[in-house]
From TrEMBL:
Residues 524-699 form the Acetophenone carboxylase-like C-terminal domain. It comes from Ramlibacter lithotrophicus. One of its GO terms (biological process) is glutathione metabolic process. Residues 210-501 form the Hydantoinase A/oxoprolinase domain. GO terms for cellular component: cytosol. Transmembrane segments: none annotated. Residues 11-188 form the Hydantoinase/oxoprolinase N-terminal domain. Residues 619-643 are annotated as: Disordered. This is Hydantoinase/oxoprolinase family protein. The lineage of its organism: Bacteria, Pseudomonadati, Pseudomonadota, Betaproteobacteria, Burkholderiales. GO terms for molecular function: 5-oxoprolinase (ATP-hydrolyzing) activity.
Length: 710
């Protein structure tokens, strides 16, 4: 491998998806960017990561010694929970609360299903142990921890072949003494077993959610530790001896040591990177109100970005039994970008349902065998197969020509599974799949916006993911959106987002109090303690003290409610002013979300959040977009034209000769009109009839969409 130059300027972002592993490499000194996309290796994801890094270094003649650090996002945690392939885990809890994971919230996610399948616990009842102890709601000790009973439980756990233990005692968010005492005893008696306590993983009110989150963290931690340790060793063998960083679900990055302690915070790491990328793209393009549309090989997701910043939630689910049914999964109380799954990905399988209609997903062909057109033995028709037959994809230009697509295999799959059974043509079958997935995604994205009190048509769409730009304009039109901004390298945007994300960590501490009874001295002490912990984490990761930023917020609600609203917290110096400002901010946030306020109902604070963050990396690749005449703009576009091919026009309902452009030759100031197909290595942009495309100074494609009549 090439010898290093002694300057470690290169940073690499790696995102493992269900079908592809994406890599982006940037030179911090010059801003140069390079991309790669390789097939994911499901049997051993690290093999794809290391192979991809070796490929991107070799192709661009960069030495491993010149890599400053690698930032990684992985689906390992999510997949272990979805597939229930974590380690054998035990639960130690307060006497009388052994079955909290099965009792849950005592409500059915589908009240009309008489044969409802409940969400199964990750811990069988035989591995759930009780010990006598009790902490009251106010933190006072009602009954001391029975250490003798805990010693006996440790012996039972040792004999059961358990690899991880979660400890969750009642009201430990208020006082964690018993949990920490139990942790010390269990670690002494079970040195080979991972021990997680809920007060460290999620010190918040909500017994069921806290238990579930702690159990999930314990369930995946040994697997994650082994994976990260192996990856670090692989990087060292390659010659990369710098620290490894991981992307968290809330859009911040952390050192691998911290990530190993809290792997549950990485369950949405890949999608969070994509949201960070679109936030940056929107801000740079002067469009801070963005609908992020992330369509990869397996799923499609959407996220609303207001004012250039995505919303972060602490309430979401993983491993749902029914993909779009709220309550059918395991609840997690960890910070994550607020996004929803709205549909299928390029590898999602199409079939005919019981009503004789085309259905897309939810299952995917994944990387192996992949869509039929990959030529790896897949026989099921997928969205990618349909896009190929509609002329949107070039069989000889996929992944820049590195991966040839088998058109005949795609035709066989659609003909045998869709066209022949329905008695329709191959084109009708392909368009039926394409239209079905577009309509499903548009409806879901529109409903998501309405649930936030917003209209999707007020936003600008930024599509990412390999399949995002193929479908984006048609989905945007269905939503009544007027513009889409399609970044260069959209197919690897999540990996790019890792490089654009700051180092950060969020702490939370439950403390239920009315505004009138707020104990400001105690609050200041608690906030200061959390801030010190955060600064220590960042300083140990190489962030300078002067670069640390702190944000404080409160989770507030009206008394009697069971859900909270996140409210930014002003300075905590003036007691009366703090209470007044919190009340005003809560009313504003609540009205913004729900359209009303309850003036006669008192508000209360449920928990406090402290985010300690380092500086946001500067990634700019701006070229001045000159003001040119229409003729010059067309000439600039024509110079990037590389031919034409027959592609299906949604407007005309038939195939039409469609110009094809090389994305890399479209320079700032170029302008063209649809229909058009714009190809780059990682994705393809499908421009509908009458849409106007302008290349801006960041080489984004700014697509102004025709307003549909009616």
């Amino acid at each position: 491998m090439k010898a290093g130059n002694g300057k470690a300027n290169w940073r690499i972002g790696v995102d493992i998806g269900g079908t592809f592993t994406d890599l982006v490499m940037t030179d911090a000194a010059t801003g140069r960017l390079f991309n790669e996309k390789v097939l994911t290796t499901p049997d051993d994801p690290s093999r794809g990561v290391l192979g991809g890094i070796e490929l991107i270094l070799g192709n661009n003649k960069v030495a491993a010694a010149d890599v400053e650090h690698v930032i990684h996002g992985t689906t390992l945690v999510a997949n272990a929970l979805i597939e229930r392939k974590g380690v054998r885990t035990a639960l130690v809890t307060t006497a009388g609360f052994r079955d909290v994971l099965e009792i849950a919230r005592e409500w059915r996610y589908d009240i009309y299903d008489l044969f409802l399948t409940p969400v199964a616990s990750l811990v069988p009842r035989s591995l759930r142990f009780e010990v006598k102890e009790r902490v009251a709601y106010d933190g006072s000790i009602v009954e001391p921890l029975d250490t003798t009973a805990l010693e006996q439980v440790a012996q039972q756990i040792a004999a059961s072949g358990v690899e991880a233990v979660a400890v969750c005692f009642l009201h430990s968010f208020k006082r964690a003494d018993h949990e920490m005492q139990a942790k010390r005893i269990l670690e002494q008696r079970l040195p080979q077993v991972t021990v997680c306590v809920s007060s460290e993983v999620m010190p918040e009110i909500g017994e069921y959610e806290r238990t579930a989150t702690a159990v999930c963290n314990a369930y995946v931690q040994p697997l994650f530790r082994k994976y990260i340790s192996g990856l670090i060793e692989g990087l060292k063998r390659m010659g990369i001896h710098r620290d490894l960083y991981l992307m968290q679900s809330d859009g911040g990055t952390v050192h691998s040591d911290t990530a190993i302690e809290y792997p549950i915070r990485l369950v949405q790491s890949g999608p969070a990177g994509g949201v960070q990328a679109t936030s940056l793209i929107g801000r740079l393009a002067g469009s801070p109100e963005i609908l992020c549309f992330d369509m990869g090989g397996t799923t499609a997701k959407a996220c609303l970005i207001d004012g250039g910043q995505p919303t972060v939630t602490t309430d979401f689910e993983v491993a749902r039994l029914q993909r779009f049914r709220k309550g059918s999964g395991i609840p997690l109380k960890v910070p994550a970008v607020d996004m929803i799954e709205i549909g299928s990905g390029g590898g999602s399988i199409s079939r005919i349902n019981q009503l004789g209609l085309i259905q897309v997903g939810p299952d995917s062909s994944s990387a192996v065998p992949g869509p039929a057109c990959y030529g790896q033995g897949g026989a099921d028709p997928t969205v990618t197969d349909a896009d190929l037959l509609l002329g949107y994809l070039d069989a000889n230009a996929f992944l820049g020509g590195d991966m040839k697509l088998d058109r005949a295999a795609a035709e066989r799959a659609l003909q045998d599974r869709i066209a022949t059974p329905l008695g329709i043509t191959l084109t009708e079958a392909a368009f039926g799949i394409h239209e079905t997935v577009n309509e499903t995604m548009a409806q879901a994205a529109g409903i998501h916006a309405l649930e936030k009190g917003k209209k999707a048509s007020d936003y600008v769409m930024v599509p990412i993911g390999g399949a995002g730009p193929v479908h984006a304009c048609h989905v945007a039109q269905k939503l009544g959106m007027k513009r889409a901004i399609i970044p260069i390298g959209a197919g690897v945007a999540s990996a790019f987002g890792f490089l654009a994300s700051p180092m950060s960590f969020q702490f939370v501490q439950a403390s239920v109090s009315s505004l009138a009874q707020l104990d400001l001295p105690a609050l200041r002490e608690m906030i200061a303690g959390l801030e010190r912990k955060g600064r220590a984490l960042l300083l140990n990761s190489g962030v300078a003290e002067a670069d640390c930023q702190v944000r404080v917020s409160a989770a507030m609600r009206y008394v009697g409610q069971g859900y909270e609203v996140e409210v930014p917290v002003p300075g905590l110096e003036d007691g009366a002013s703090v209470r007044e400002q919190l009340a005003r901010e809560f009313d504003r946030c609540y009205e913004d979300l729900y359209g009303r306020v309850e003036k006669d109902t008192p508000a209360e604070i449920v928990s406090w959040r402290v985010v300690v963050q380092g500086p946001t990396p500067e990634l700019t690749a701006r070229t001045q977009a000159p003001s040119v005449s229409d003729a010059t703009a067309r000439d600039r576009a024509d110079s990037a034209r590389k031919g034409e091919r027959q592609a299906f026009s949604v407007t005309r309902g038939a195939f039409a000769a469609t110009p094809v452009y090389d994305r890399y030759r479209l320079v700032p100031g170029a302008r063209l009109q649809g229909p058009a197909i714009i190809e780059e290595r990682e994705s393809t942009v499908v421009v509908p009839d009458a849409a106007v495309v302008t290349v801006d100074g960041y080489r984004n494609l700014v697509v102004d969409l025709p307003v549909k009549a009616g």
